[in-house]
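Table S2 (text version). Query chain:
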Amino acid sequence: METFLLFLLVGVLAQAVDGSLGMAYGVISSSVLLAFGVPPATASASVHTAEVFTTAASAGSHIAHKNVEWRLLLPLAGAGVIGGILGAYVLAGIEGDLIKPFVIAYLAIMGCYILWRAGHDVKPRHIRPAWIVAPLGAIGGFLDAIGGGGWGPTVSSTLVGAGQEPRRAIGTGNTAEFFVTVAISATFVWSLVTGHWRDADALENHASAVAGLVVGGLIAAPFAGLIAKRVPRRVLAYSVGGLLVFLAGFQGLQLAGVMA
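Corresponding structure-token output:
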């Protein structure tokens, strides 16, 4: 019961940040699971199992509040599904620390750029043509599967950096994430059934944690669209940029062994 309540609180916090800023649910949840000694592959699978439910609720909220740029959704989600499936399939054979420094550097650069744009009040612009976001979706899906939380920091931040209105970048990214998460979770299940994922602990060993993440996320998810819609554009941009810089610094300290 203590484990359930702890992860319920983690789920509420993580989803409140993710739903309103478009990132951090996976990063926060995975970090806590890893701190409890859960293997990386199992942590990623656990987080994506929870996200099937929380991203559905968050997507519904953003759709209801008209935060979704529909012309970008299909290429982003379609490519994200492909990248996510590939990442989930090869997760067991990838050394995450090899690519993590490049991801951290990207987050830091993108965060600083978004802060610069917010400080200079650069006006949003449409991303054209829509298909140009497809490679971004594929990379985001792949990183999300192998890292347990790379979709938002990669995709939502890049859309904001490219000039998309922050609330629509967040809403579109969150909505596309639902389809990517379903694909990744299904691939994890297939890998378990076929024996490809032999080294991972059984997900049932962490059922209380997953249940807590689901319930906590569902509590916070319905407010996602409203927050993104009501918060002023520049404040939202500052928040996204600041969170990216923070996440880059936090993960950099972890990689350097300064923090567990």
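Notes on Table S2: The chain has one domain: 2-255. Residues 166-194 form the longest helix (29 residues).
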